[in-house]
Amino acid sequence: MDDSWINQFKGLSRLPADIRGKLEAGSQIVSVPAGTEIFAPGQTADNLWLLLDGTVKVQQKSETGREVFLYRVHAGESCVLTTACMLAFEDYSAEGTAETEVKAVAIPRKTFDDLVAKSPVFREFVFTAYSRRITDLFTLIDDIVFQRMDVRLAARLLELADPQNVVHATHAVLGTELGTAREVISRTLSEFQRRGWIEQSRGELRLVGRDALKRLVKSPGSQI
User: Fold this and answer.
1) Each residue's pLDDT tens digit, 95-149
2) Where does residue 131 rank: exposed (0-12), middle (13-18), buried (19+ CB within 10 A)?
């Protein structure tokens, strides 16, 4: 296996040669197309995925069918839920889906358990990534409970916009992203459009007032 992928992960580049060899030999590079379900509630966590390219969206669905976006895993990152499930020997409680074509390194449980037990560097990598994502999840809770919806929506639009300032998402998808109803998103977007900050079309919207959206996100009371 080409070992260059290890250097994409800052915490792994310090692995000693023998541990690096075990990681390479015990892992495999996998690719999946966009839309692939990576894991789902009730499934066993058998592999820790380290993303090389693409993004994975992780969200949870309530008993009433409401979906709540939790976080995205980007290239150079691992999934905190998978880490938690592997450490605790528990099944998944949320679902992860490839938003784009994804290329990743799959580390099987046997290799994962062996390296966590034997390598302080690998163990530090795992728990550092875990701690960072847990902090992000507490920030998400704080946002949902305390932050204004218009501010949260503006921040998410800026995050999701492509280089042409276009966001490819429906009102329903944005509602899932922010844990609110589609109707709330529609009302807020209508206000953004009235102010000349966005232009809407079917399935996408364009940020024509990007600076104004940034000012809203950074305004007093936004808690960002």
Assistant:
1) 999 999 999 999 999 999 999 999 999 999 999 888 877 777 777 676 666 678 8
2) exposed
